[in-house]
Write a structure and sequence with these properties.
442 residues; alpha/beta; Rossmann fold; Immunoglobulin-like; 5-stranded parallel sheet; elongated
Length: 442
């Protein structure tokens, strides 16, 4: 259970531009709007994200879980970070499909994630060799992996297992651990007395009485994540930070009696709730909303024809959001800077405009202004707000810049404000609400 929130904190939270779904007279289709009804009109959903920490260039990272973990590996590897779960030793292993080069490392349930870390980190834990099964023609399968590799004999299968364990052990050197949760239907090997990662049709045919299905519950999965946390605290980095997320990829099929859509909803809802509870209990566990990004984007832009695989464009969108929010060298997302009115209407004396801004992931944001090309000066500070600029002169050039901090290292947005010259012809062009504070009519 999360800690109670004080009245002061609650009111501050309510003041966030992202706290409301809809307001009276709001325009749902307004571009860059902060209301949920507006943002959900965008083709690719962009949630407000408040990262609990920042990745540093020197950080080592380990990703474990389902396919989103592979996306994180590639994204951070592209930033030239040390991603120890993406080991060069794996390059020699014979993948069935090059697109799934590291797919064999996917872990789809919390039992598989915990077991993998336990065998790698706990000196008293021993891998159950009897869980490796013969699948015909002298080939064997390690059900704690994914069948994305060409099958090998027992010795080769065991060699791969030892290599995976050796690479997983490197998680102890990583300050940042990314864990992706996949599904709640889990198979248990009764002969080896162990929960496995994935079963194949060959295993069910060859060993019809050996395996049993468990549709796991909230307590099962939270207990596994807490056990995983204990391992990382005991054997991991002294300042370990954990990012947990839920894979948006639905079940391929269900072994339960439910409609697969209903079964998938249960699976994702349960894991989403477990992730929230885990993050609420542990200050160094942080949730990243990859599931919400996909579910709230335009389905035509999101899914391949099978309505199961996420299109590359959306996967890249998720990775960009992750990097912009968690990587210290990149600006935060969801920044907006506006001026109203702009241009400022003609009239006598200085004109007025109201500058509004927000940047949910930058609590120390600051707005600076440059007048007629002069040096930038501080105009306002804060994560979000509105402030009047009552000194806009005719034909002046005003540049307002939004930064993620007063040090102005990362500029997030820029807007130019202008005020055109007053012309005598305006006297005959109908209503003018500026001159003399009244209205001139032709």
């Amino acid at each position: 259970m999360s800690s109670p929130v004080t009245t002061v904190e609650a009111r501050r939270n309510f003041g966030s531009p992202y706290s409301r779904w809809h307001q009276t007279e709001a325009l749902p289709g307004e571009l860059d709007g902060t209301l949920a009804c507006q943002r959900l009109c965008e083709p690719l959903f962009m949630p407000a994200i408040s990262p609990g920490f920042k990745l540093q260039r020197e950080d080592r990272v380990f990703a474990i879980g389902s396919c989103f973990a592979r996306g994180i590996e590639n994204a951070l590897d592209g930033q030239r970070m040390q991603v120890l779960s993406k080991a060069v030793e794996f390059d020699s292993l014979p993948a069935i499909n090059d697109e799934l080069k590291l797919g064999f490392t996917n872990k789809y349930n919390t039992f598989a994630i915990y077991n993998e870390l336990r065998w790698a980190l706990d000196p008293n834990a021993e891998f159950p060799r009897n869980s490796i099964v013969h699948i015909g023609n002298g080939t064997f399968y390690d059900p704690h992996t994914n069948p994305a590799l060409q099958p090998g004999d027992f010795d080769e299968t065991l060699r791969r297992r030892e290599l995976i364990t050796s690479v997983t052990r490197r998680i102890s050197k990583c300050r940042v651990v990314v864990i992706t949760l996949g599904l709640v239907e889990v198979w248990r090997d009764k002969a080896a007395n162990i929960f496995i990662n994935q079963i194949t049709s060959d295993m069910l045919s060859l060993y019809p009485g050996r395996y049993e299905l468990h549709v796991t519950n909230f307590a099962d999965n939270l207990a596994n994540l807490e056990a995983t946390y204990a391992l990382l605290k005991q054997f991991g980095h002294q300042d370990v930070r954990i990012i947990v997320t839920v894979s948006p990829v639905p079940l391929m099929a269900t072994f339960s009696t439910e409609d697969v859509v209903v079964a998938n909803t249960y699976s994702k809802s349960l894991l989403r709730a477990v992730a929230q509870e885990w993050a609420a209990k542990r200050t160094n566990v942080h949730y990243f909303p990859s599931y919400e990004i996909v579910q709230n984007s335009d389905p035509k832009r999101t899914w391949e024809e099978d309505r199961r695989h996420v299109k590359g464009e959306v996967a890249q969108h998720i990775m960009r959001l992750f990097l912009r929010n968690y990587f210290s060298g990149l600006p935060a997302t969801s920044a907006k800077l506006s001026a109203s009115p702009n241009p400022v209407p003609r009239g006598n004396g200085p004109g007025k405009t109201v500058i509004s801004w927000f940047c949910h992931a930058a609590p120390d944001a600051a707005v600076y202004v440059s007048t007629n090309g002069a040096k930038e000066v501080l105009f306002a500070k804060g994560q979000h707000g509105s402030q009047e600029a009552p000194w806009i002169e005719t034909d002046g050039k005003y540049e307002f810049m939004l930064y993620d901090g007063v040090d102005r290292k990362n500029r997030l947005a820029k807007i130019s404000v202008s005020r055109p010259s007053f012309s005598p012809s305006d006297m005959t062009n109908g209503p003018n609400p500026i001159l003399g504070g009244g209205t001139i009519r032709a």
